[in-house]
TrEMBL record:
GO terms for molecular function: ATP binding; formate-tetrahydrofolate ligase activity. GO terms for biological process: one-carbon metabolic process. Keywords: ATP-binding, Ligase, Nucleotide-binding, One-carbon metabolism. The keyword Ligase applies. The lineage of its organism: unclassified sequences, metagenomes, organismal metagenomes. The keyword Ligase applies. Pfam families: FTHFS (PF01268). This is Formate-tetrahydrofolate ligase.
Amino acid sequence: SDTEAEIAALKELCASIDVPVELASVWADGAEGGVSLAETLVKTIDENPANYKRLYDNDLSVQEKIEKIVTEIYRGSKVNFEKKAQTQIAQIVQNGWDKLPICMAKTQYSFSDNPNALGAPENFEITI
């Protein structure tokens, strides 16, 4: 469990950057132990609207969505779609799943598909 010193340090840090803090005791007190946290969360959201913008419109093609992820998040320059990927994308379209968001997996060591290009390289090509 957290010590009083740890809790005090966290409260101090949050206060220094103007972030509200609420302690939750839902494990000990059930739902009642989370009410103040929930109220503070709702108040914070209401008072600080997010400047959220989707990366892409779901009406884009699967290939275009993947290209957006690669170029705008991973900082790559190009996506090469192998025949197998093209076949799988055609199946996605045929099943009507092409208007859904994309969830892309990659190595945890690099934004590229090259396991030797560690970290966040730029201007690389990804082959799918």
